TrEMBL record:
This is Outer membrane lipoprotein-sorting protein. It comes from the Bacteria. Residues 36-213 form the Uncharacterized protein TP-0789 domain. Keywords: Lipoprotein, Signal.
Amino acid sequence: PFALTTTLVEYRNGKQADSNTLTVYSKADSDSGQFRSLIRFLAPARDANKLMLKSGNDLWFYDPSSKASIRLSPQQRLLGQASNGDVVTVNLAKDYKAELAAEEDTQDGDRKVHRAYKLVLAASTPDVTYHRIEMWINVASNRPIKARFYSESGRHLKTAYYRRFQSELGVERPTETVIIDGLNPNWVTVMRFSDYAWRDVPETWLQRDYLPRFKPE
């Protein structure tokens, strides 16, 4: 189990439009290998202490002001180009079947060219955030370079570039993801990941019934 801070900043036509800061607590399910996550909203003030819980394929949102928990879709937009499913911890190997489609040159977020494996990921369950993903993996480093995300109808929803790799919790991870809208490239959302830490995530935190009683430590 571990925790991290996720900051999302939305830009429209080069100007900052909105932002969110979240704490994510995640724990892998020993049976399924899927991650269960509790997300606490830190900022802006209007959203502080709202919660989102992913358990199995269920996603719940809890607002302490209304004391109501409602079911969400992982495809619903959270902020800018980032959907709810983008901020919970996922295990792509469990949710998708991957095929090697090609080995080709591709550009990263800084327009540098790399030799990459192009993988096509097809959803193996209906409740995932994206029906199909194309992902480019750097041949030399095995790091993800970018991914394109598609809806069930085949519409290109967004492209994500993975940047600023650092060793976090013993693994090289991107600490920044830049998401570009599939229709309007001037709509951009930047996700930054920081404050990674191993920590205990009590089982009670991952129960929907416990959301009204959750108290951050």
